[in-house]
Design goal:
Length: 282
Amino acid sequence: MNKIPKILFRYRSWTSALRKDGNGTVTERNYTKESLENGTFHFSSPRDFDDLHDSLLGPHATGSPLDIDRFILHHKDLFALMRERGLGSITQLDTLKDEAAQKVFAPLAGHEARRHSRVLCFAEEMNNELMWATYANYHRGICLGFDASDPFFAGIQPVQYVDAPTAEVIASKASGTLIDPWSLCKSKAWEFQKEWRLVLPGDEPKRVGFPKEALKVVVLGYRFTERDFAALKEVLIEGGYRVQIFRIERVPGTFELANFHVGEIAGRSEAKENPPNEPTAR
């Protein structure tokens, strides 16, 4: 069992994006800014993740004529059962109630449950170059560090990186968690993430409030601009956060990244007794 780190990090873009709502109205929104202003996390569906194998959701339909082929390839046991029982239609599977049939159906139920789960992802490191490039807009974003000892994170579990998603591998890495183990299983290709997850059942609510006092660290990306920093500071101050500010820098003569402490920000509620420091390079 992996030991939970003291700080859990969440890499975020600070760039606004255009989004169209159900009525066709297009708005420009900075989701990271909104998250800090509202004190909420957005739990994502594994259906939207960049790893196609994430959570082993089964085949993905695209409207292509190949969709049926995908379904068959991913459910060979199901079609073998149909041949064995002489069934001519998938709808006839509902008539099978015996234990052997239910064993074949079990993976389908797991796919469905995981499709309708919500996942919140964190990383162990704040200077992971691949994470900055992939999840923080090519180093133009920020990384938020949360106190892992806060009760909000009770139940968080590490992702296990394996060569293949076999039942034997999953069983050997079981940790007694109530989270579906397939939601915590990824290919070793993603091992650089060093990921921890909170997984909740159901589609809603997607936005969940977090204790603002749990946010302890904000790390600025190497390409994060001073103009964006000014906007970020205002959000943190108005939101009542008290955080340490770091900035990522390249280490000359190496391929390494280092983090440098540049100051502290105290929220508006503490401003009179503890005015916020103006971060300056050190």
